[in-house]
């Protein structure tokens, strides 16, 4: 470990480790300070996303989908399976291996790029110095030409439902159940709540989601959210809106007390997941005399290029404004690295895709119809259902729609929204189209292979001009 570096990164999640690797690629000396420790007590790179977020949740979503298909769907394909059983500990073990393989891969990349991984807590001091307090050993003060703050976020706690790590858990704990709860409550019907609810519902839980807002998935286009809610409820998820949880009591079960439009209500569950959002992890990030500007919620103030109010100090990812998405943080990390190197790095915040990995998946990019109406922007819309595509039918995944919003005068694509099979992959075409300022006509004139799911995107583009082939216009 050196005493001085070109760049010191505090935080090794997708924003921090990607920024560090890009800095190293550009010839800089780099150190990454990270305090994450796994459940077995060992340090691990990758932050929340790789260790207790994006990756493990997707591993469990895939496992639960495989089980659900074997248990409930394969008979319709003429495949009869007898004696199916569920081994939840093995499912968790597989999830842990996926995480270990990927985090170990980052460790190898650090080694190849000669990045120093410092295991412990980092605190920004004056004049771009960083106090490093290792998990074991003595505190040291390091110096850098540039400092990148990328400490990520943590789950929000609520007083009405204090977590105990056993029966009332946050999103981290929801990844560690060793058996399927008969009744599962979820506070919050957002991205995390829906994904975790889907995992355990497919495995046999009776799942109830309590959402404080009166609107389901408020950030999502209203038409797509409405379609998604209908499909989720058909699967057995019970989604209750306008619910304010007031108290939880633990006995033989967990009693969840809440209020809605009909007054005071109570449900009994075996496990309760609290997933009401995340907050920036900026506690103890900088000494007070540094003067780092943060807002009332703890977000670090930055400009369009992720520069803080302190020269040579940058912040990226969940600790700054914008969506808390791993890929957004990664692109910010790359942008900062390139700007430090004197290159023209940038992030187009108008073309950041969002995905909810339920079944069917929900994905979108750009503006919703509601936002366009509120702004008074003229627009045209085209929609197309997966039920009319041969590939979706053959896959037995014919639910959902694709919706394209184009400017009413220029035809430039302003937003693309979908709920359906593999929406997380299909949205990439829309992101690329918007990045190149394409029109719906451009997509409509692009040849799509047949039979594919992407034909739904093609037909939705045709529908903007009321000329979809496989839909009555």
Automatic annotation (TrEMBL):
Q: Where is the FAD/NAD(P)-binding domain?
A: 5-333
What are this entry's molecular-function GO terms?
Answer: dihydrolipoyl dehydrogenase (NADH) activity; flavin adenine dinucleotide binding
Give the co-factor note: Binds 1 FAD per subunit.
The active site consists of 450 (proton acceptor)
Positions that bind NAD(+)? 188-195, 211, 277
One record GO biological process? 2-oxoglutarate metabolic process
Q: Where is the signal peptide?
A: none
Q: Which InterPro entries match?
A: Class-I_Pyr_Nuc-Dis_Oxidored, FAD/NAD-bd_sf, FAD/NAD-binding_dom, FAD/NAD-linked_Rdtase_dimer_sf, Lipoamide_DH, Pyr_nuc-diS_OxRdtase, Pyr_nucl-diS_OxRdtase_dimer, Pyr_OxRdtase_I_AS
* Residues at which FAD binds: 58, 122, 151-153, 318, 324-327
**In this record, what's one Pfam family?**
Pyr_redox_dim
The residues covered by the Pyridine nucleotide-disulphide oxidoreductase dimerisation domain are 352-461
UniProt cross-references to SUPFAM superfamilies, sorted A to Z: FAD/NAD(P)-binding domain, FAD/NAD-linked reductases, dimerisation (C-terminal) domain
User: What top-level class of enzyme does the UniProt entry assign?
Assistant: oxidoreductase
Q: Which cofactor does it need?
A: FAD
Which terms in the GO cellular component ontology are assigned? Answer: cytoplasm
Q: List the disulfide bonds.
A: 49-54
Chief location bin: cytoplasm
EC assignment = 1.8.1.4
Misc = The active site is a redox-active disulfide bond.
Please state which protein family the record places this protein in. Answer: Belongs to the class-I pyridine nucleotide-disulfide oxidoreductase family.
Q: What is this protein called?
A: Dihydrolipoyl dehydrogenase
């Amino acid at each position: 470990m050196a005493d001085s570096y070109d760049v010191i990164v505090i935080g090794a999640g997708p924003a921090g480790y990607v920024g560090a690797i890009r800095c190293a690629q550009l010839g800089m000396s780099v150190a990454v300070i990270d305090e994450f420790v796994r459940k077995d007590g060992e340090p691990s790179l990758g932050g929340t996303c790789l260790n207790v977020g994006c990756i493990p949740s997707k591993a469990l979503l895939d496992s639960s989908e495989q089980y659900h298909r074997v248990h409930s769907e394969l008979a319709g394909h003429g495949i009869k399976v007898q004696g199916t059983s569920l081994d939840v500990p093995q499912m968790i073990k597989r999830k842990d291996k996926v995480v270990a393989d990927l985090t170990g891969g980052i460790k190898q990349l650090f080694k190849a790029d000669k990045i120093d991984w410092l295991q412990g807590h980092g605190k920004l001091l004056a004049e771009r110095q960083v106090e490093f307090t290792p998990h074991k050993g003595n505190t040291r003060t390091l110096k850098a030409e540039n400092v990148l703050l990328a400490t990520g976020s943590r789950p929000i706690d609520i007083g009405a439902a204090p977590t105990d790590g056993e029966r009332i858990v946050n999103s981290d704990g929801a990844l560690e159940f060793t058996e399927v709860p008969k009744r599962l409550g979820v506070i919050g019907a957002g991205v995390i709540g829906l994904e975790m609810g889907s995992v355990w519902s497919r495995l046999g839980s009776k799942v109830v989601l309590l959402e404080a807002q009166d609107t389901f998935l408020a950030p999502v286009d209203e038409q797509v959210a409405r379609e998604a809610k209908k499909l989720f409820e058909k699967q057995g998820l019970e989604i209750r809106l306008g619910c304010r949880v007031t108290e939880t009591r633990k006995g033989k079960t967990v009693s969840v007390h809440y209020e809605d439009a009909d007054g005071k209500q109570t449900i009994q569950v075996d496990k309760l997941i609290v997933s009401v959002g995340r907050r920036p992890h900026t506690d103890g990030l900088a000494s007070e005399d540094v003067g780092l500007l943060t807002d009332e919620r703890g977000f670090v103030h930055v400009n369009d290029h992720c520069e803080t109010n302190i020269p040579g100090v940058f912040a990226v990812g969940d600790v700054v404004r914008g969506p808390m998405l791993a890929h957004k943080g990664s692109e910010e990390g790359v942008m900062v690295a390139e700007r430090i190197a004197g290159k023209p790095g940038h992030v187009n915040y108008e073309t950041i895709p969002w995905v909810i990995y339920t079944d069917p998946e929900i994905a979108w990019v750009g503006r919703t119809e509601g936002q366009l109406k509120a702004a008074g922007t003229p627009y045209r819309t085209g929609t197309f259902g997966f039920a009319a595509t041969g590939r979706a039918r053959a896959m037995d995944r014919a639910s959902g729609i694709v919706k394209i919003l184009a400017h009413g005068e220029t035809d430039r694509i302003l937003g693309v929204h979908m709920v359906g099979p593999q929406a997380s992959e299909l949205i990439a075409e829309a992101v690329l189209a918007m990045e190149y300022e394409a029109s719906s006509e451009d997509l409509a004139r692009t040849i799509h292979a047949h039979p594919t799911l992407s034909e739904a995107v093609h037909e939705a583009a045709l529908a903007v001009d009321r000329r979809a082939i496989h839909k009555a216009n």
